[in-house]
Amino acid sequence: MSGDARLWCDRLVRGLGQHQFDVYALSRSRRQEDEGWLELPPHVSRVRTAPLWTAEEDGVAYGRRARRRFVESYAELAGVLCAGPGADGPDGPGGTEGSGAVPAHLADRFGSALYGLAELARDEGGLVGALRSDTAVRTLERACRAPGALGTAREARVPDLLAVAAHLERALRPLSLDWYGDDGLGATDLCHATAGGPAALPGLLAAHFSDVPLLVTEYGVQLRSHYLASGPDAATPAVRALLAAFHGRLATEVYGRAAIITPGNAHARRWQERCGADRARIRTVHPGMEASRFTEVGEAPDRADPDTLVWVGRIEPSKDLVSLLHAFAEVRRGEPKARLRVVGAPAGAEGEAYLGHCKALAAQLFPDEAEGVHAVGDNPVAFEEIGGPEAPTLADAYASGTVVVLSSVVEGFPVGLVEAMFCGRATVSTDVGAVVEAIGGTGLVVPPRNPRALAEACVALLRDPERRERLGAAARARALELFTVEQNIAAFRSIYLEIVSHCPVRRVVLDATGEPLPFGVPAEAHVPGRWTGPTARVVSRGGPGWALGAPARPAPVRATPLAATEGAL
Predict the structure, then answer these.
(1) N or C: which end of the chain has fewer CB within 10 A?
(2) Strand partners, 49
């Protein structure tokens, strides 16, 4: 995990010191893995990692029976991904009316195929070689050519099949991990997956093999992220259709298996419900953010320049700085002294190119101005980065302006907007993602891609200092009530105890002679703190016999957070 996700998970583990944690971390790149190491608190028992960005051949040679099992399970998986309208069951196309959920019979087939592959990986020692084999590609091709398959899938050519097979191999790598025995995830009281999608697969398998309850947290919905990254230029229609089907089926399986699902906002919740999540098992838990670093600014709102607008964030096309610059041109016509500070770093090569385009547009819209013929010209738009002389810290960036602007066309949970609220700043935002949910009635909201509306809202606040102060104070009070680390940790503490209290003890404890030990897992096992007991072997009911480990002692409530590979983990 990286960025805000890493900080959130670290704060959660440190804040729940009454629980014992094992951390299972998945990484999507070497850089992410190298940057993800943190000093561990004493209640973290161990950390296990697995890189999903690389996988060596496992060297496993399947026998005839294992090959047949693989073909059957992989063919079932491919058939579900290629299923066309003719394959819909009694619920009709796409599930029940008004729902985006996968039809029940397709969800059952997907689960059967997924767990069939997982059991094969467990029994044979790995799945990587099989998923990379020609057999996998030929099986996928037969599913695409089968009667009733999606029309888009039938158009798949060899390069498309190879691309889909390679993506499935990467996504299913967690199935080959050796994490699911009674010395691993099978020994925990609760598995907390801090993202959906492939990152939740270890939690799914722990639930399947050992009945470990699964908690899924999504601050950025993985299915939505996949859709946004799969534009027309990313792949052919056949590849996009098949991969969208896979991620949609996987999301439905994750939500169906989870004991509780915790979206970070109502926007994410709507996505989850659309994918079949049960409303009764959803608890919205807003992200916890560190408010203390903004305290000084929030308690001194008069530090701001009354004529300055501030935009803070990651520079990329989805932030729509072009509309912001055109809106600022309108602002300058009504308020000639107004200035705009754009504070942020570009996101990758695309962000660099977009920043260059925005700077060129700013130079065109606002030629350097000077008060007289002997004065040096100055552009009213400044592009800066955090750490520079004008904005040494993030708090300084927000402190420099009287109004904070968000101009995005795509947004999940608006972290920058909440930071501005902690600073007591009035805000003008576009109505995207969870913006309205975050600000409530403490800021102005306009439609996206509407420079005139954005400009009018900014001018209204620039001209009314009393309104700015009133909105800023209300915004700060709202942020301190809803979006702090403390409220986030308190919510998850309650959810952990709720799940554990509703899940019966899954383990049979054996004494030194191999006989069942009555009351081997006492009630105190679910009380915070470290408890000791007689030496015993712990066996999961219905768990895999291959995973029986060394003798173990009854343990306190052990929560296992799974570090996600994408987005928020």
Answers:
(1) N
(2) 25
Q: Which 3 state secondary structure label does DSSP give 260? A: strand
Tokens of 549: 């480990």
Would you state the pLDDT for residue 357? 96
Whether 346 and 318 have beta carbons less than 8 Å apart is answered as no
What the block records as the tokens of 446 is 């306009």
Span 307-333, pLDDT tens digits: 999 999 999 999 999 999 999 999 999
**Token pair recorded at residue 415:** 């972290």
Residue 540's pLDDT is what?
A: 41
Q: Give the type of residue at 113.
A: A
Amino acid at 305: D
Residue (of 498, 494, 474) closest to 486 by Cα position: 494
Which H/E stretch holds residue 21?
strand 20-27
Phi/psi of residue 441, nearest 5 degrees: -105, 25
Q: What rounded mean pLDDT belongs to the chain?
A: 85
Q: Report how far residue 527's alpha carbon sits from residue 507's, in angstroms, rounded to the nearest whole number.
A: 17
Helices 348-365 and 321-334 pack at an angle, to 10 degrees, of 20
Of the candidates 521, 522, 560, 524, which has an alpha carbon nearest to the alpha carbon of residue 540?
A: 521
> How many Å apart are CA 78 and CA 274, to the nearest integer?
23
Complete edge-to-edge strand list for the sheet that includes strand 401-406: 381-384, 339-343, 305-312, 401-406, 426-430, 444-446
DSSP state of 98: T
- pLDDT for 138-174, tens place per residue? 999 999 999 989 999 999 999 999 999 999 999 999 9
Burial of 313 (0-12, 13-18, 19+ CB in 10 A): buried
SS3 261: strand
* Matching residue, tokens 């039809």: 103
Under DSSP, is residue 380 helix (H, G, I), strand (E, B) or coil? coil
Helix (H, G, I), strand (E, B) or coil at 44: strand
Low-confidence ranges of the chain (pLDDT < 70): 1-6, 36, 58, 84-101, 301, 369-377, 504-511, 517-569
Q: Which residues contact 321 (CB under 8 A, 6 or more apart)?
A: 311, 315, 342, 354, 358, 407
Question: Tokens 């993506």 belong to which residue?
Answer: 167
CA angle 456, 461, 467 (to 5 degrees): 140
Q: Is 373 exposed, middle or buried (CB count within 10 Å of its CB: 0-12, 13-18, 19+)?
A: exposed
State the virtual CA torsion across 341, 345, 348, 349 in degrees, nearest 10: 50
> For the stretch 483-510, what's the b/e string if a residue is b when 16 or more beta carbons lie within 10 angstroms of its beta carbon?
bbbebbbebbbebbbebbeeeeebbbbb
CB 414 within 8 A of CB 438: yes
**DSSP of 157-197, one letter per residue?**
-HHHHHHHHHHHHHHTGGGG-S--STTTGGG-SEEEESS-G
